[in-house]
């Protein structure tokens, strides 16, 4: 149904808590924040980027764990600590990268993500997203946040572009 739109995606933007993670926020006794990331999501992001699709982050929280994960994945398009309007960050990203809204996908899970989902060419909702997010999504994923949802996004996009088999070929030989 959205194959043509998916085939035109050149940039994937993600919320973090509830999309790249399961939404849990864990603190150590020292006050350090810990996040758990899914390795399948990481591979999905690497497959996207290796196939020429850019990836970035728009999130309301700031955390060193996220910065470490992004560094590990090679993502440098990071807008964190976006407390109020994620649309402004989205517009800034488009302005700085030259991508259009229709060439961009955004994945979210909660209310602050809806305005960006509606502006992006494709809006993804993780399986356990808030009801209102699901209602405003173009595609509702079968996986919950932090449990392969981003990998699923990667498959949707790469399959629509006819690049999935090429992307996974190194693993099948």
Per DSSP, what share of the residues sits in E-state strands of 2 or more residues? 15-25%
Topology as a string of helices (H) and strands (E): HEEEHEHEHEHEHEHH
Structural class category = alpha/beta
Number of E-type strands:
8
Helix content bin = 40-55%
What is the radius of gyration computed over CA atoms, rounded to a whole number of angstroms? 15 Å
Gross morphology is: globular
Kindly, what is the distance between the CA atoms of the first and last residues, rounded to a whole number of angstroms?
32 Å
List keywords for this structure.
single chain, 173 residues, alpha/beta, six-stranded parallel β-sheet, two-stranded antiparallel sheet, 8 helices, 42% helix
List the helices and strands and how they pair.
Layout: H1 3-7, E1 11-14, E2 26-27, E3 33-34, H2 39-50, E4 54-58, H3 64-73, E5 77-79, H4 86-97, E6 104-108, H5 114-119, E7 122-125, H6 131-136, E8 139-140, H7 149-160, H8 164-172
Parallel strand pairs: 1-4, 1-6, 4-5, 6-7, 7-8
Antiparallel strand pairs: 2-3
Question: Can you give a write-up of this model?
Answer:
It is a single chain. With 173 residues, the protein is α/β, with parallel strands linked by helices. The chain is 42% helix and 16% strand. The protein contains eight helices and eight strands. The chain has helices spanning 3-7, 39-50, 64-73, 86-97, 114-119, 131-136, 149-160, 164-172, and strands at residues 11-14, 26-27, 33-34, 54-58, 77-79, 104-108, 122-125, 139-140. The strands form two sheets. A six-stranded parallel sheet has the order 5-4-1-6-7-8. It has a two-stranded antiparallel sheet with strand order 2-3. α2 (39-50) packs parallel to α7 (149-160). The chain is globular. The model has no long low-confidence stretch (mean pLDDT 96).
């Amino acid at each position: 149904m959205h194959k043509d739109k998916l085939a035109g995606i050149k940039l994937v933007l993600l919320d973090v808590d509830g999309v790249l993670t399961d939404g849990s926020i864990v603190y150590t006794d020292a006050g350090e924040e810990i996040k758990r990331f899914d390795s399948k999501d990481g591979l999905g992001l690497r497959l996207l980027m290796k196939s020429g699709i850019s990836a970035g982050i728009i999130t309301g929280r700031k955390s060193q764990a996220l910065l470490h994960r992004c560094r590990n994945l090679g993502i440098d398009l990071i807008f964190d600590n976006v407390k109020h309007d994620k649309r402004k960050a989205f517009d800034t990203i488009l302005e700085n990268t030259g991508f259009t809204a229709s060439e961009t996908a955004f994945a979210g899970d909660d209310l602050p993500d809806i305005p960006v989902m509606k502006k992006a060419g494709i809006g993804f909702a993780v399986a356990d997203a808030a009801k209102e997010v699901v209602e405003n999504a173009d595609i509702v994923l079968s996986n919950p946040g932090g449990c392969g949802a981003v990998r699923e996004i990667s498959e949707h996009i790469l399959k629509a572009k006819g690049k999935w088999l090429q992307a996974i070929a190194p693993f099948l030989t």
